[in-house]
Each structure stands twice: as structure tokens, then as C-alpha cells.
Amino acid sequence: MKRILVLCLNAAALQGAITLSSLFSDHMVIQRDLPVHVWGKANPGERVTVRIGAAERSTAAGERGLWSVHLPPMAASGPIEITAQGANSITLRDVLVGDIWVGSGQSNMEMAVESSNNAGAEIAGADQPRIRLLTVKRVASQYPRSEAETEGWAAAAPATIPKFSAAMYFFARHIQDTQKVPIGLIHSSWGGTLIEAWMSMDTLSSDASFMPVLALWSKTMNNFEDWQWRWDRTLEQWRQDVDEAKRKGVAAPGRPWTGNQENSGMPGGLYNAMIAPLTPFPIRGVLWYQGESNAGVDRAHLYEHMFERMIRDWRAAWGIGDFPFLFVQLANWKAGPVNRWPELREAQMKTLGAAKTGMAVAIDIGDEKDIHPKNKQEVGRRLALAARAVAYGEGIEYSGPIYRTAAGEGAAMRVWFDHATGLRAAGGSVEGFEIAGADGKFVPATATIDGTTVLVASASVEKPTQTRYAWLDNPKCNLENGDGLPASPFRSSH
């Protein structure tokens, strides 16, 4: 009886303890120059006081036990402490004030430092105490959650960096070197996922043009039991193959992959569990690396509109204005005839029409045999160039040539570009251009650089009306600007 009483008293004490959101822990970063938002749970009506340096704010928990305070903005600094005081006291130590970037998308964002080029040297040299890391666990939900499942903040170091997103880490390393402020990285991605999983259901259901993706999800669910049966058999065979490999002393086969693991394909499901809980937390901007799973014939044509709406969706949810949204265009890879990689790249490029966006072109650093190219160092650098211009206002060149317009010029077509100072071909004559007449049949073309324009022609097309560049899943192309940044694939009309 005495033991039961002690357990009850302990439970009551735990119930009355104030807690902080899972986004708060030792070693975290808080966003500079924006009000500092701190929130958590306590007993209904319990008084909570939060202190950061000389700043202090108090509030009472509401009827659901939720509490929230905003403290004045702070300049980049640290380490500092954050103290939350109620029936108990919580002190967070080694907190830095700097810039927070959220990274999301699918497997190329998820791809870890240990899988990138020169992984051993990169890991050994990852002593970066002013870069802090937070990973959101992979979860899908039917409804928006208030708490993300996280592993807690940690400083970048050889022990913490191997499993972290390579693209994000290499991005942060460049930004920290140039901006000289602490950088917090919140990694929230899931391999093989679709853009509709990262959009809110409010947005998906408010636009009739998104009905096809909801219909595709319905089809997936209608066949779920059959899919689950086949997937269980595949896993069982894999386990047997692993056991057999161990008996023979040979390398075990990798775990098989399939889409919609743990309902990762659910429209709105990843937004609900992995993005919505982050939105009360002020940030500097977003890095996005996704598109491969939407490049099929049934989805690619919707991507431009969906991507633009998703950006608006996230910005509205955070409520801190049009924060920078930077993304990676699909790299070169032999995708096969049932995919529409050129169209998906075009959709990504057109999204640059949205405010404060930037795109890292990757058409020259992919791997024709591997959808996961290992040169994430250059991906991170190109994202960082975009951030330095779009987010930090540096007057640098940050993009490769971007198609502006094209017009007929006798038996040729002239193409104009933005970001084209020092336009040149890498490694010889220009490759990758095609041209077509009124019949729409494209043929290879010769291309001559003329200042910041390109003149495109073919002896077999007397009156050209269209031109395009790098319009294949794995093209040979070499147009770049004077800063060595590659031109984005494009077509002049369709």
C-alpha cells in the first residue's frame, strides 16, 4: 500500500512538471533577429516564467496545459542559457543564437555524409561546434501534430555527422564560413516521398487541379492489402538471403525498397507529422531537395503548380513572411522512358518566379547509373551561393544561366539568358541544343555563343520555331557562365 502511494505521488509530481517542446534541448540554436518563441506544457493554470539573459516573460498554462511566450529578438551570440521555471525548473545550456535552416525532401536530402564523396575525410574534419544538428524522425500522421519526434540537438562533430544530411551539412559549412554566425540545421526528410505528402490537406483540398493525386492515393489504398502481402513476402525473402550470405561469408544484399512505407505517401501525412510541428519555431529559410518521385507520367505535369502552392503553404504556416526557399533541380540520371525528368526540371525552374527562391542546378554533377549522386559537397555549395544572394543580400553570382526568351533570326534562333555573364562551353564546343520547325520534330543543332546569348541552327530546319537544351533525363550538355555554374535545361515553347 505504501509503495502504491509513493507511485501515485510520483505520477502526480510528473504530471505537474513543466515541459518544453521537443524542438528545445541543450546545444540548440534559436533564430536571431526574430522574436524568440518558447512553448511547452504544464498543469492547467500553472504559472511559467522563461528567462534568456536579462529578458523574462511569464504566462499561465491554458486549460489543455499548453503555454507559450515570446521574448525580444536577439543578435547572433552564445553560448547562453534558457531557463523555464514553474513547479519545476528546466535549464538549457550551450544554446547559440544564429540562423536556422529547415531541410526537407526525399532521399537525396536524406543521403548522409557517410555516403558522400570523400566521406572518411569529411567525417574526420567535421569538428564544427557552431553548426548544430537536429533530425526529425520519420513519421506520417492523418492530422497535424503539435510535437515532432526528434533526437535532440547536437553540435557537428565526427561522432554526430556521419548519419546527418550531407547536402545540409555542406551547405551550412559554407554559410558559417561566410556569414560568421551559428547555424542550426533541422533535417526533416524521407526517401522516396512525393511532394503531396509534404503539403497540407487544406491546400490539397482547396484546389481542384490536385484531385488526380488524391485519386492516385485512393488507388493505392484500394490495393493496400495486396501490396502488403507482396511486400511481406519480399522482406521475408530478403531476410533469408541475408542469412544465406552470412553462412557463405559474402556481402549481404541491401534491404529492398518500396514506396509508401509506413504510409509515407499519404497526402498531407508528412506535413502533418514532420513540418506542422516545426512551424511555431522561427527560422531563416528552407532547403528543398525532392522531385524524383513526382517525375512519372501521372504526376510530372502537376509539379509546377504543386511546388509553388507548397512554398506558399509553408510560408503561411510559419507566419514570418516570405522566407528564402532554396531548392535543388533534378540531376542527370538514366531515368527511363516512363519518366518525365525534363518536364520536372522545367517545373522546378519556373518556380523561380516565386519571391525569394533560388535553385541549385545539378545537371552536370549527377550519376547516370545512380539516382543518388555522391557529390553533395557541390550541391551544398550551390545552395549556399543562392542563400548568400537571396537570404544574405550578397552581390554575387549564384545561379547558372536561366532561359529568358528565344526568337527566330533568319534560319536560326537566338536564345537570351539571365545569369549569363561570361557565357561559355565547358570543355570545347557547345553541346546539348536541339531545334525544330513548325512540325515540332527536334533535331540536334549547332550552337554559337554570342555575348550573353546563344545562336542555334541546323541545316535540316529552314524556319525554326522552337529550341531546347539538355532535354533528356541524362543529357550531354556543357553550357555555363563565367563562374562555372551550369545552365538549366529548358525548352522555348510547348
In terms of DSSP E residues, the strand content is: 25-35%
Number of strands: 24
Q: What's the alpha carbon Rg, rounded to whole Å?
A: 25 Å
Distance between the termini: 80 Å
Shape descriptor: globular
What would you call the structural class? alpha+beta
> What fraction, in percent, of the residue positions are helical?
25-40%
Q: Taking all residues together, what is the mean pLDDT?
A: 94
pLDDT < 50 runs, ≥5 residues: 1-14
How many helical stretches?
Answer: 11
- What profile does the largest beta sheet have? 11 strands, mixed
Could you characterize the architecture of this molecule?
By secondary structure, the chain is an alpha+beta fold. It has a domain at 402-491. The chain has helices spanning 2-16, 107-110, 119-124, 166-179, 201-205, 211-222, 224-248, 269-275, 303-318, 341-350, 376-390, and strands spanning 19-20, 29-31, 36-41, 47-52, 55-60, 66-71, 77-85, 89-105, 128-135, 154-156, 183-189, 285-289, 325-328, 357-360, 402-409, 412-418, 424-425, 433-436, 443-444, 446-450, 453-457, 466-469, 479-480, 490-491. Helix 4 (166-179) crosses helix 11 (376-390). It is globular.
